[in-house]
Amino acid sequence: MLLERTSMVVTGGNSGIGEAIVLAAATEGASIVIDYINHPDETAHLIAAVEAAGGHATGVHADVSKADDLQKMIQAAVDQYGRLDVLVNNAGIETRASLLETTETEFDRVMSINLKSAFFGTQTAARQFISQGTGGLVINISSVHEDWPMPGNIAYCVSKGGVRMLTRTAGVELGPHDVRVINVAPGAVETPINSTTMADPSEMKALDKAIPLGRMAKASEIADVVIFLASGKAGYLTATTVVIDGGIMQGSVGL
């Protein structure tokens, strides 16, 4: 198994891409801390599914916008599994508001969950990796919108642009400690965050037409890339972004 004896934390791990990562990692032998803020019942069901498949998982209620909670989350992995090997900064939200419409409260919430959590999650994990003396890996679930404007969703785009620069700079700073930082940037994915789009046939038709592969990604396809990166088979990658978007950034001028 690709992730046997690997201890992993996945933020926002009880739904969408996070849930797919947890299930895929468990199948490959990882022991996982599932961070969540809502829906403890869904977390319990996910843990049961992992254990039924022979894996190991535990849930931790932690608000990723708070540095103390991030520390609690990392410590849970150390306490449960003896160490930390991989942190996946997956938690994220959108507001779907333009520059002229975005409120200060909305802006701060998006930045706290999408960018601040990735920054201090990376910091906390890196300190643990260095303390262990083992190196380690941070995978940030970013977005094609780290580089590609999305009018009407500006705070989200700004947060993901920040995650891109965090990944690049942290990867350079932490390289001498054998700590790597990589972005995974999905395009459109079949997850709850895109439920409004998926419920509108006309929007889905336009979206599918804009994607060269003709469809949205499945969350499991994003998870497969994460598993590959965490497996050690991509050990020379750091400070960069792996884009998995069905070609949308090349095939369309924007949505």
Element string (H = helix, E = strand): EHEHEHEHEHEHHHEH
Task: Give the helix level as a range of percent.
Answer: 40-55%
What is the distance, rounded to the nearest whole angstrom, between the alpha carbons of the first and last residues?
39 Å
Shape: globular
CATH fold naming: Rossmann fold
Q: What strand order characterises the main sheet?
A: 3-2-1-4-5-6-7
Notes on the protein architecture:
This protein is an alpha/beta fold. The protein has one domain: NAD(P)-binding Rossmann-like Domain (Rossmann fold, 3-Layer(aba) Sandwich). Helix content is 47%, strand content 15%. It is built from nine helices and seven strands. It has a seven-stranded parallel sheet with strand order 3-2-1-4-5-6-7, sandwiched between helices. β5, α5 (154-174) and β6 (179-186) form a beta-alpha-beta unit. The longest helix has 29 residues, at 104-132. The mean pLDDT is 95.
Question: In brief, what are we looking at here?
Answer:
It is an enzyme of class 1 (oxidoreductase). By secondary structure, this protein is of the alpha/beta class.
Descriptive keywords:
single chain, 255 residues, SDR_fam, glucose 1-dehydrogenase [NAD(P)+] activity, Glucose 1-dehydrogenase, EC 1.1.1.47, NAD(P)-bd_dom_sf
Helix and strand arrangement:
Blueprint: E1 7-10, H1 16-27, E2 31-36, H2 40-52, E3 56-61, H3 67-81, E4 86-89, H4 104-132, E5 136-141, H5 154-174, E6 179-186, H6 195-198, H7 201-210, H8 219-230, E7 240-244, H9 248-251
Parallel strand pairs: 1-2, 1-4, 2-3, 4-5, 5-6, 6-7
